[in-house]
Amino acid sequence: MRALRFDGSLKLVDDAPIPRREGEALVEVICAGICNTDLEIVRGYAGFRGVLGHEFVGRVIESPDAKQIGCRVVGEINAGCGVCRLCRAGDARHCPARTVLGIKDRDGAFADFLSLPAHNLLEVPDTLSDEEAVFAEPLAAALNILDQVEIAPTARVAVIGDGKLAQLIIRVMAQSGCALTVIGKHAEKLALAEAVGAHCLCLQNTSDERAIEDWLRRANLLLAFDVVIEISGSPTGLPMALQLVRPRGIVVLKSTHHGQTGLSLTAVVVNEVTIVGSRCGRLATALDWLANQTIDVRPFITEKLAIEDAIEAFAKATRPDSLKVLLRVSPSS
Amino acid sequence: MRALRFDGSLKLVDDAPIPRREGEALVEVICAGICNTDLEIVRGYAGFRGVLGHEFVGRVIESPDAKQIGCRVVGEINAGCGVCRLCRAGDARHCPARTVLGIKDRDGAFADFLSLPAHNLLEVPDTLSDEEAVFAEPLAAALNILDQVEIAPTARVAVIGDGKLAQLIIRVMAQSGCALTVIGKHAEKLALAEAVGAHCLCLQNTSDERAIEDWLRRANLLLAFDVVIEISGSPTGLPMALQLVRPRGIVVLKSTHHGQTGLSLTAVVVNEVTIVGSRCGRLATALDWLANQTIDVRPFITEKLAIEDAIEAFAKATRPDSLKVLLRVSPSS
Question: B255-307, pLDDT tens digit by residue?
Fold first, then answer.
């Protein structure tokens, strides 16, 4: 089958073996999305080798659960061992022996076929297009914040970042009715946030912490927010979040990136800030939001390319003006 | 009056002006305690210049609240502006314009007299000795954890650190009935934790992260704790806490130190850890615990010296085998 592999470099192959795993379902991929995590893996994050990709919609070809066969599905990307304490408590997402589609010890979705446990798959409502359904996984990651942190309608919330996942988080936050500020570096991406009522600030492209602090002070943003969501993907994001959040406020940390962050932790202690790490979320809720049209993800699709053009698609996904780049793998029906 | 000043170096003076502040109470200091924050200030933390000291018991000499005069008191060390949004909401501790006794823009307790707002002072029950009462401030800081994080009796809790504040935290945690593990570097200090039922591990004196991780793995401690309290005072403490805490667990950050921590934040996001910064606490609760003998602080007193010997007392407080060093300033009655 065709597959986009990363083995120190990106390579499109057409002779990858079909990934049948015992007791699991086999899914023919229809469409897949390129995520920042994919780009970070190519930069060395997570040490993954294999077929990339974890945002997908596909059709079930084989399954131990016969009634799944033929269904159009999205999938929970974490597959736990099933026997450890966490798995038995229903938290396979954090199983220490888990595999993760296209991220950890399991080939991913940028391929004709993928394998996942049958219970990881959720049927997609017919009303949703493939292009919308492929957003279920990142939208679940955005919605996960609501499972972790209470966002009151009176809350002052800042989002640092204006990229793919940031845009979904901004729409989720806008739904809560909170007073929303977005700090980004790309005017045309910030315009999408402004369209849902966010107050947007375009930050100069600098990593000079002093210059950033001066800028935040002049904009009256220091210690001004109840909740700050850090999804910039930059090592300067968390230090900035700690300058923005009020005493006893909450910083939600969404960015993962390769390497270390140099950080003065004094502000965390002195201001008694809470930092909440946040990763994946519940696909069922995300499908509900998409099916109910609570959120419209179509403005975030930059381009759709065929899997044959996956290398070019990756190059496009890394451009500063890019949002979601989709890979069309097979026709929907 | 006599005072121990820090102006880039420690100096004992006998001609410091008596610190009368308009509308505040004047307190004659009886006894004061040396805290790690004092030692950190001498190393450059917080940029403070002036009279050090914030743990004290004293007697009110002058006060706008006449019934306070003559009372033996301890004091809330943060004094807010009284008019900002945080102060009006009752959180003067986080007022951005606050002064802090012996830490920020306010002369401290290593002196014959100190000044604090009358409403910052709490009367000490007669049953408490001066030496016990002086622990009210650090004990409040330890108890603050219970206001921030729920510690279930079934919780697996680790404390990283075996110093002065760590010992108080260990006793507070031991009261909760949780399964308590303490990781420290000083056998004789760990023995105090063992005395209240903690499982203690003496870490080799190394800052090599790989060696520490191997050691934790062999001891079966990786991802093993619901709550990890980091009070080591060392930049290696938080990285270790992130190795110990289970997915979706809580790290309480108590250490403040000068300088930056190099940190990989990936574990925070991937394991969805919550980091809670924790500073001061409520003195009234601490006085209750001391008066009810819920906690016995006397084992933690390493030595009592007269204020004339304050420089020597500081030297003693920095020794690895030292716990609380007290300064006797004036007789109790």
Answer: 887 667 777 788 999 999 999 999 999 999 999 999 999 999 999 999 999 99
Residue of B84, B91, B276 for testing the chain A interface, max A β-carbons within 10 Å: B276
Tokens of residue A131, six digits: 């292009």
Sign of CA dihedral A192, A193, A198, A200: negative
Q: What is the DSSP letter of A167?
A: H
By Cβ distance, the residue of A263, A274, A275 closest to B260 is A263
C-alpha span between B160 and B165 (Å, rounded): 11
- ipTM of the shown complex: 0.94
**pTM beyond 0.80, yes or no:** yes
Q: Tokens for B114?
A: 């100190």
Cβ–Cβ under 8 Å, residues B79 and B86? no
**Six-digit token pair at A7?**
């083995």
> Shortest CB distance from B274 goes to which of A257, A260, A274?
A274
Residue with tokens 């600098």: A206
pLDDT in tens, B28-37: 999 999 999 9
Q: Residue B78: pLDDT above 60?
A: yes
pLDDT of residue A29 exceeding 80: yes
Query: What 3 state SS string does chain B have?
Result: CCEEEECCCEEEECCCCCCCCCCCEEEEEEEEECCHHHHHHHCCHHHCCEECCCEEEEEEEECCCHHHCCCEEEECCEECCCCCHHHHCCCHHHCCCCEECCCECCCCCCECEEEECHHHEEECCCCCCHHHHCCHHHHHHHHHHHHHCCCCCCCEEEEECCCHHHHHHHHHHHHHCCEEEEEECCHHHHHHHHCCCCEEEECCCCCCHHHHHHHHHHCCCCCCEEEEEECCCCCCHHHHHHHHEEEEEEEEECCCCCCCEEECCHHHHHCCCEEEECCCCCHHHHHHHHHCCCCCCHHHEEEEEEHHHHHHHHHHHCCCCCCEEEEECCCCC
